Amino acid sequence: MRPSKSLTGLKQSFNAELCTSSSGSIRRWLLVNKEMPAQSESETPSLFTMEELRKLKSNFETGGVENVKSLIEKKVTEMDNTELNVALTGISGSGKSTLINTMRGLRSMDKGAAKVGTKETTMEPTGYPHPSLPNVCYWDLPGIGSLQLPAGKYLSKMNFKKYDFFIIVSDCRFRESDAKLAKEIKRLGKNFYFVRSKIDNDLRSMKLDLGKINEEKELDTIRNDCVKGLERAGIPYPKVFLISSFEEDQFDFSLLQKVLEFDLSNVKKHIFVLALPNTNMENVRKKNEMLKKYIWMLATLSGALGAVPVPGFSLACDIGIMVGAIVHFRKCMGLDEASLQRLANRSGKPVEKLNAVVQPLLLGEITPNVILRVGWGAAVVTVSAMELALDFIPVIGSIFGAGSSFVMTYKILSDALKDLTENAKRVVKVAFESA
Q1: How far apart, in whole angstroms, are the C-alpha atoms of residue 168 and residue 189?
Q2: Is 150 left (phi over 0), alpha (psi -120 to 50) or beta?
Q3: How far apart are CA 22 and CA 347, in angstroms?
Q4: Which of 58, 71, 196, 431 could in theory staple to 347 by disulfide, Cβ–Cβ 3.0 to 4.6 A?
Q5: CA pair distance 411, 422, nearest whole angstrom
Q6: What is the pTM of this model?
Q7: Closest CA to 260 of 333, 332, 171, 167
Q8: What is the CATH number of domain 84-270?
Q9: Residue 380 — very low, low, confident or very high, per pLDDT cuts 50/70/90?
Q10: Angle, CA of 162, 164 and 169, to the nearest 5°
């Protein structure tokens, strides 16, 4: 069976994925200069490995959309079930809890926030799931000093294998315990990132004590102290970040997020990006590009279901796919009620002010009627009516069904994502505009 012309967009999507899936390791050296190049749309990382992409392309060209259905279903299932576990470790009071909250878009008063304080409250790892994407979890590990264990036994007790990477958090001078922990994590083959927290407090104290200071020089001194300590522990080219969890637009906070994203691959990169808080336009843009790569997979499944010669079956499945996808997009874009309230708490703006700039159509319950009422409703009804009629005609109905279902689902979800993205941008602008 040859793929229909109406599925040309699907083939183009495969080719685009192939062009963007190569590793970006050649850019790693830029980390030395504390810079990361911005990703253009064409550079957005693939959700598939090269082997998966070649198999998809080959199956589609030889057998059409039906031949790739199982492969796409497997990838969608993988995306729904993959977990990302991030471990934060360091001494008590170093700022782990505050950083965990900040990376999840929370403040300490929000429901589910990590408790902030200087007293070690647990001797076991404590997990804090992302409020909208529970498969993303940040783990607060008790400081190594609080358990009085050697680094090797400490990581064993903390079940290090479950974590995708470690963030070592330190809030003052570089310690010997930091070096031992970094060395052990490296020995076990895990990525780690060294975060020097509370930099805003350090600079404020220096200014109170010394008056005028050279901030750049002081920051370089702090960074070099951490780098040299890690190098003495046998860590070449250590990744050190100076941050304030309360001033995310300052120092190295945005760089930390970019590097974490950069070092992850395929599906885990995808869910990490979708879990980023909506604190700036760049995060909204990244989410939009990631979700675009999800749309063509859902449209492909819709196209495959459209080829099933059962009257009305395709239409029902298309609507189900679209409803589920739009609800998911809305959560990822931070436009559900709970997300808007958290953003209001974070920005200090009334939630009513954020709600005022959001177009209401996609905010409430997403039902089949909502999808039919949106601006592209007339086109949906036309295609669906034609599809229902052709369902009774053998062969022709199946060929048209695959094409029309793909086109309809792709168009509606693309337009819905565009609308949600514009809403998210307006919300971010209002939330973080100057008072």
Answers
A1: 15
A2: beta
A3: 38
A4: 431
A5: 17
A6: 0.79
A7: 167
A8: 3.40.50.300
A9: low
A10: 105
